[in-house]
Task: structure prediction
Amino acid sequence: MARDMVDAVEHALGVPHRKAPTHSLPLPGGDIPSFDAELSSARSTVGRDDTALHLVRAYGGRWRQVWALTHAQPLLAEPLVPGLPYIRAEAVHGVTHELVHTLSDLLVRRLKVSFETRDLGRAAARLAASDVAPLLGWSPQDVERQLADYSRDVERLFGIDPADA
Result:
């Protein structure tokens, strides 16, 4: 889809067509020589198999950037949700490296926590907000607004309209 869009924009702008190199370029973090070796390294570093597997699958070789955040702040190694592999460092990394600016972007589109929890990620949203608020300059009122926006977003996405039931 991205290639088609770039082709359409080139055509609309009247610029010469250039073949997109995306078919041969790895995604960021995807330039690892061996998934198994990367996973082995993550397991020995992280110490939790599910989290190590998740980090390597999600970030490839860049899992180390995420994990490095736990050295300065050990609390960031804790799970965002008990029983799931997502860690608090991922929320911080999302803000510092992936342009995350909302809880919905983080927990619906990036980490998929909203899909995997009974509360649609509401508890994780509060915890993530406490980690990212200082980075984003959120006031306590901004945090509450973000939490309310997140709650509305997940209700819109996952809620069942009583009229349809």
